[in-house]
Design brief:
Elements: H1 2-20, H2 25-43, H3 54-77, H4 96-120, H5 125-132, H6 134-144, H7 147-155, H8 161-176, H9 181-198, H10 203-232, H11 238-266, H12 280-290, E1 303-304, E2 312-313, H13 317-326, H14 329-345, H15 351-364, H16 377-391, H17 396-399
Antiparallel strand pairs: 1-2
Helix pairs in contact: 1-2, 1-3, 3-14, 4-5, 4-6, 4-8, 6-16, 7-8, 9-10, 9-15, 10-11, 11-13, 13-14, 15-16
Length: 406
């Protein structure tokens, strides 16, 4: 079955590339999960992870094939909109004052975080709640989308190198205090993808930048766990702690596909009555307005995926989560997401829509772990990106979405 999945992945993504002449959303979010599945196939049994259910390969194959089909039909149907011209990096005019506003906002958040840490302790549920709600919570969502705009300001010589570095350090320091890996990793991927979008990068540089981005993600992962553990237990042995983090890292990599596999082994029926979890931000906004209690996106299902690690996993990859809540309708739901993303990305030179596309894709790049579109940030952040992209469009045609869809 792994061979069939590999063949389906290679053929579908290659055919899509021939039509689009560039990597698309369906391809980009399936590349990481293909790598994870391959690593699981090679090393899973060595590290005592349970064998994958054969249906995992089947369903993942259908998702990637169906996504490719949607993208090909979209580019055919809207070929009058399609173009493959690279954007002008100088087109988005990001003034230097934006960087200083980011510095002020970051400094304010760090100051508030210091007050919260003194009152509640930095490793506490109260501190995490304060950092996730109110002004600070929404400000952090805004900050997570700012690195590409800071980069454009630097690339177009609106700010100097030191201002650029200070901004990035402050932004990621604020996001680090969330103590949630994805809040650091997603902005890093967003910055990396938009850098590639605005620059002509050859294969050697691409490999270098991709390796560097992967190294940063790995470093951030280790730092988050090292930070939280040493705060709780300052006397912890560093070497033993690094070994524990490494073991947890492997569990983190394989938890999505492993739990999806065990869900299929369990023969638990699909939870279609809670399908609305997939659009939970919209549901909770309505609940807030009507006075109903907020609902959680945490899946109550939990499966042990390793013979030696007793902790279970409640993440199922993006595709596994769609399957749990929608069963066969999950392919239709995924098709809608792929279609909407394809529409955003048809006109490559339209950096306003493409900036939004890259952010949504950055959330999707973690499809190997979980479905990230049931978090409010996945709705709120694209709005911020769209607004800033329009503000910084710098031209009348840009302010009118560059007349791409008129």
């Amino acid at each position: 079955m792994f061979f069939i999945y590999t063949l389906a992945f290679i053929l579908s993504t290659s055919i899509t590339y021939r039509f689009w002449k560039r990597l698309t959303y369906n391809t980009l979010i399936n590349i990481p999960i293909f790598i994870i599945i391959s690593l699981y196939q090679l090393f899973g049994s060595t590290f005592k992870f349970k064998e994958l259910n054969g249906d995992v390969y089947l369903y993942l194959s259908i998702f990637v094939i169906f996504g490719s089909l949607i993208e090909i039909l979209t580019v055919f149907g809207l070929k009058n909109v399609y173009n493959n011209y690279s954007p002008q990096r100088s087109a988005p005019v990001v003034p230097g004052i934006f960087s200083f506003l980011v510095i002020i906002l970051s400094s304010t958040i760090l100051f508030l975080a210091s007050l919260y840490s003194k009152q509640y302790g930095i490793i506490s549920e109260e501190f995490e709640a304060k950092m996730a709600s109110g002004f600070v919570g929404h400000a952090l969502v805004f900050l997570m989308i700012t690195p590409p705009f800071i980069y454009l300001s630097y690339a177009n010589k609106r700010i100097n190198k030191w201002t650029f570095m200070i901004c990035l350090i402050l932004i990621f320091s604020c996001l680090f205090l969330k103590q949630v890996k994805s809040w650091i990793m997603i902005p890093t991927v967003f910055l990396f993808l938009t850098y590639l979008y605005y620059n002509n990068v050859n294969k050697k540089k691409f490999i270098f930048y991709a390796s560097f981005a992967s190294f940063l993600l790995l470093t951030f992962f280790f730092l988050v766990y090292f930070f939280k553990t040493t705060i709780v237990n300052p006397d912890a042995n560093s070497l033993e702690l690094l070994g524990q983090i490494y073991q947890h890292f492997l569990f983190y990599l394989f938890s999505g596909v492993g739990a999806f596999s065990e869900y299929l082994n369990s023969n638990v029926s699909s939870d279609s009555s809670h399908w609305y979890v997939l659009i939970l931000p919209l549901v909770n906004i309505i609940n807030f307005i009507t006075g109903y209690p907020m609902e959680s996106a945490i899946n109550p299902l939990n499966f042990v995926i390793n013979y030696e690690i007793t902790n279970g996993s409640n993440v199922f990859t993006m595709f596994g989560t769609l399957w749990i809540y929608l069963n066969y309708f999950s392919f239709f739901f995924y098709g809608i997401i792929v279609f909407l993303q394809a529409v955003l990305y048809l006109n490559r030179s339209n950096y306003i829509l493409c900036n939004v596309f890259w952010l949504i894709t950055s959330f999707g790049m973690f499809s190997w772990f979980e479905y990230y579109y049931f978090h409010l940030a996945s709705y709120e952040a694209p709005i911020y990106v769209f607004i800033l992209s329009v503000i910084f469009s710098g031209s009348q045609s840009g302010k009118q979405l560059r007349n791409s869809y008129s």
